[in-house]
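Hello, quick one for you while I still have it in my head. My current little project is about how a certain protein chain folds up. You're getting the sequence in one-letter code plus the fold written as tokens. Would you mind checking whether the tokens look sensible for this chain? Here's the protein in full, and shout if anything looks odd to you:
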Amino acid sequence: MERLDVCICTFRRASLAATIRSVAAQDVRADVAIRVIVADNDTGPSAQGCLGEAERSGLPIRYVHAPAQNISIARNACLDAAETRWIAFIDDDEIAAPDWLRRLIAAREGHEVVFGRSHALLDRSSVPAWMRAGRFHDNSIGDRDGAFNGYTCNVLIDRDFLRANGIRFLESLGRTGGEDTVLFDDVRRAGGRARYVADAIVEEEIPPRRATLGWLARRRYRAGQIHCLLTRRNGGAPLARVPAALAKMAWCYGVAIVTLPARRRSAAALLRGTLHLGFLSSAFGARTFAEYGEAQAAAS
């Protein structure tokens, strides 16, 4: 019997119960036993109520209080609490398809990381058609099998590989976000291999405050800042890349203006330009945007 731990980091989200139910409903092989680890990142143990939800679902659960409102602390608490070689991560506002874990497990041979796809659900009555069609809120790697610019919202990881190489989530990025991108880059540097499985799907309902171009732009800005960090960690010189980044940013913003009537294309160019802006800001020493600080304040 193979055991597999599914890790969920949470901060005051009622949707956690539905996430746990979707994990309990997984259609996996008869020789695979699932346990859930919930890492509560709130200052108080506000997610303890999930224990009852798991018991009703017949799912073994381990609750870990990992306070400090720092997502890296919660993610590392999951790594410490896990007892299985393979662990999966899913976000506390996502619902896993019944075959989610089965598809990730089937693809892991010869790899240390297997990414699935996070499919965003947007309100058709309030979100413009161009934003829905652009799939800007999705998390996917596309056809870039082997890429490491991944995420923890839908992933299967060889925990033994992380431990053997001393790889953990950086607590210094616990309020900015990007800690998962850095961790998977560390896996790559240690010789790990990654795979993307497009049909291993989780769904996430996007709340109104995130269904805006401004929210997407802030995410891309922070992603650019993390890219700058990775450049430094990998021995590169961000300042040497400033001319190229400036040119790319100017081109993208120009395309965004010219294609303004075609909203989806214009938004894509704007977001790409904002990613380069984020790189430039970090190259010149700007502080990294605190994504989780904003999100947690909104949840309070």
Notes: The chain is about 40% helix and 20% strand. Residues 295-300 have pLDDT under 50 and may be disordered. The first helix runs from residue 16 to 24. The longest strand covers residues 194-205.
